[in-house]
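Figure 6 in text form: structure in, sequence out.
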């Protein structure tokens, strides 16, 4: 059978991992096919805890407010004892800070989170293909040919990469023969989304905490349902109907006033802690539960899956756009150690829960995870304060030079890299390049650090620069003199200077290396070239906007000077303005000419 379709990436699985990856690729204009063997979207609530770091990821992907609005904060834990109910705070909550704007874990049923991700995907022009099962694949040096069983028969699809986001029993992992060592944790449990009478939605109710007869009911905010959870023996048949679950619940709690009216979704599962031996075989990658599975304690599985996909997305896109293949090796190097640590944490919390300790601290927030030892973390000058390469890049409120408040996370939002110069003398010490946004913070910069918050959050001195990756981790903190190391780093990460064939200004044309496959014509032909041309045009637009902005500030300064010093200065100011305006218009015209060549 010869391949019938061509795409860049096939994503197998539309859980949180597959959808996150799809969103990240969609906003980078990468072609992909997103498939799921299920006939329709998953309807269960299981991964209902959205941790602060995932909330930051969702902000970047443009869905955070919709996800927050779909759920709520974790309620108090109400423990029913022989002496009556006792309310206990289960999740440690700190107040949001300027550096960590999301501190509170959210409770959102997994099916609502996934719905919001699909809605965002639709806004970007994509939809998952349900009823499409990956049934086989072969790979060679150039790509992967996947066999997909569809309602219209089997199809062969050719892609550059295949991603197994197909959950704990991953077909892709098994087909690759990748080991999944670990252990079953000796715990079997039921989880069911139920409509119930007789339980109030103001608390997560827990009965029989110190016995084998535990059972809990957690309100599923955003719905009228509760999630019923309970450990159950291995050797019993379970009746997961409304009547069966009501009888089960009454037997454990003695509460005859509680009636389960209907069951939306129910499952009995065994808890496992497993980690794939490797996350990659050549052109096929594993992500999410396909690569690791945890007990649900601590609410880590979905979050780790989302962040796997977020780590893989920008690297795949960069390599498809011409970055070295070695960038993809850093996916496993960065994410597998994280999964290993998360497995340990979930098991520790499971043991604690068995001993009635249901308290969860900062460690579950995933805000402190980072990539300090990654090959992508450029450690240059010794630092004794502030953030290091590999750390999560903190947020901070700042003010644009135009006077409007903004935040670092707003500057980071999108598929680009960001370079922040702190109190630097030469604003243009590093030439702009497509896919890199450069901001300078300080009195002559485009960003004002009101209250020195950035300076404190990052621990920066004058003439220091921070390079932030597209996924919001610090890649490097360097002095101005070390910027050549950043340039070399960006080259190897696929963030290259504009091609010399399409200069935008005379300065730009002097130092740009040549590098595109349509150098002779200057017109983009392939998808990749179109993407590059579009990114380049966006970069030129941003540069033009910055120039106009600087011009307007110059005029404002001149006008202030006019008011202070009178007519002579006014004449000088006007001529300065005219000169600057003409220069700026010339530059814009040159840019427009180049844009027209790019179409
Ligand atoms: C009771 C319970 C509670 C949990 N609570 C939490 C929590 O609070 N917080 C948290 O972070 N996590 C939690 N988790 C874990 C969380 O649900 C998972 O980690 C998460 O769903 C993993 O997402 P995924 O996208 O990797 O895989 P999945 O969500 O499993 O999605 C995999 C998809 O791949 C599809 N698929 C499989 N094979 C094929 C094939 N051959 N072809 C096409 N499609 C295929 C499947 O149909 C499925 O839709 C909980 C889990 C359980 C069971």
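Output sequence:
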């Amino acid at each position: 059978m010869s391949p019938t379709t061509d795409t860049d990436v096939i994503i197998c699985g539309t859980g949180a991992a597959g959808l996150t990856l799809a969103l990240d690729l969609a906003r980078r204009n990468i072609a992909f096919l997103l498939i799921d063997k299920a006939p329709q979207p998953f309807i269960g609530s299981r991964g209902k805890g959205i941790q602060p770091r995932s909330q930051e990821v969702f902000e970047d992907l443009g869905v955070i407010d919709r996800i927050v609005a779909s759920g709520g904060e974790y309620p108090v834990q109400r423990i029913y004892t022989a002496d009556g109910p006792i309310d206990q705070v289960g999740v440690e909550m700190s107040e949001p800070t300027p550096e960590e704007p999301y501190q509170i874990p959210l409770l959102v049923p997994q099916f609502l989170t996934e719905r919001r991700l699909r809605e965002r995907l639709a806004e970007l022009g994509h939809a998952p293909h349900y009823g499409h099962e990956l049934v086989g694949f072969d790979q060679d040096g150039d790509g992967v040919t996947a066999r997909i069983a569809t309602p219209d028969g089997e199809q062969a699809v050719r892609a550059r990469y295949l991603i197994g986001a197909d959950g704990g029993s991953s077909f892709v992992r098994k087909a690759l023969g990748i080991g999944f060592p670990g252990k079953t944790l000796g715990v079997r449990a039921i989880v069911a989304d139920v409509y119930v009478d007789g339980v109030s939605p103001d608390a997560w109710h827990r009965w029989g905490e110190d016995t084998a007869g535990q059972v809990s009911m957690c309100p599923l905010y955003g719905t009228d349902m509760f999630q019923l959870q309970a450990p159950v023996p291995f050797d019993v048949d379970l009746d997961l109907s409304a009547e069966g679950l009501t009888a089960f619940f009454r037997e454990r709690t003695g509460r005859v006033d509680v009636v389960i009216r209907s069951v939306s979704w129910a499952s009995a599962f065994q808890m496992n802690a497993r980690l794939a031996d490797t996350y990659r075989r050549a052109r096929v990658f594993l992500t999410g539960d396909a690569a690791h599975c945890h007990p649900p304690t601590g609410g880590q599985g979905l979050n780790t899956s989302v962040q796997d996909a977020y780590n893989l997305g920008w690297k795949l896109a960069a390599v498809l756009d011409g970055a070295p293949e070695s960038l993809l090796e850093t996916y496993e190097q960065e994410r597998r150690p994280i999964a290993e640590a998360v497995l340990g944490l979930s098991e520790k919390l499971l043991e604690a829960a068995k001993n009635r300790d249901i308290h969860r601290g900062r460690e579950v927030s995933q805000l402190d995870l980072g990539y300090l030892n990654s090959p992508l973390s450029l450690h240059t000058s010794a630092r004794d304060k502030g953030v290091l390469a590999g750390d999560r890049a903190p947020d901070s409120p700042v003010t644009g030079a135009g006077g409007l408040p903004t935040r670092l996370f707003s500057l980071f939002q999108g598929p680009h890299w960001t370079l922040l110069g702190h109190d630097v003398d030469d604003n243009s010490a590093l030439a702009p390049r497509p896919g890199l946004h450069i901001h300078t913070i300080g009195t002559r910069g485009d960003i004002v650090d009101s209250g020195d918050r950035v300076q404190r959050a990052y621990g920066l001195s004058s003439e220091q620069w921070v390079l932030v990756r597209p996924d919001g981790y610090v890649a490097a903190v360097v002095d101005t003199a070390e910027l050549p190391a950043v340039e070399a780093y960006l080259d190897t990460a696929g963030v290259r200077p504009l091609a010399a064939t399409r200069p935008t200004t005379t300065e730009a044309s002097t130092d740009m290396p040549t590098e595109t496959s349509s150098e002779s014509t200057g017109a983009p032909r392939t998808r990749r070239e179109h993407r590059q041309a579009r990114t380049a045009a966006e970069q030129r637009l941003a540069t033009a906007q910055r120039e106009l902005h600087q011009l307007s500030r110059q005029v404002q300064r001149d006008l202030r000077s006019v008011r202070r010093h009178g007519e002579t200065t006014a004449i000088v100011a006007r001529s300065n303005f005219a000169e600057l305006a003409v220069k700026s218009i010339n530059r814009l015209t040159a840019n427009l000419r180049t844009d027209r060549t790019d179409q």
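Caption detail: DSSP finds 14 helices and 26 strands in the chain.
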